[in-house]
Amino acid sequence: MVIIGSDHTGIELKKKIINYLYDNHVEYADVTNYANQEGDDYPDIALAVCSEVLKNSNNLGIAICGTGIGISIACNKIRGIRAAVCTDRYMAEMTRHDNNANVLCLGARLGISKEFRNIEEIVDSFIHSFYDGGRHDRRLSKIKKLEEINIGEEMKYGNNI
Ligand code: RB5
Fold first, then answer.
1. How far is the CA of 161 from the centre of ligand 1 (A)?
2. Is any atom of ligand 1 closer than 6 Å to the C-beta of 66?
3. Is the pLDDT of residue 53 over 70?
4. Mean pLDDT of all residues belonging to the chain
């Protein structure tokens, strides 16, 4: 299932993406299905999206803020989340193949969001691309280890985590 949420900047974009998912028979859940207001802060939206994503390993998230950057920083603080800001379909495809990204972050105030066709392509690439595994497993397991590191203690890992 695709879990989608946006702060107040992304209400229109979220609606368009939901219509797109609906038209393409993609199961989704809107976790910010209420009247967003100026006070809807992107870290809260990140938590709402990511906590649902983590309930099922087949879930993917779409998290929207003005640039996609703030919400990606927030999402990536949550253990088990690999969130990627993507501005084209290649980024969306490769972040699934290589990083096994489970949350796509989009910027509602970027030019790409005004041209909905490009966002459609990005969403489509993200939800229809799959993790390649293989050599990427080693790298992702290192990312997992990074989640456990308290800075100051990193020396115990040497040069290679
Ligand atoms: C909210 O105005 C804006 O700061 C937020 O949507 C996002 O762009 C932050 O990165």
1. 33
2. yes
3. yes
4. 92
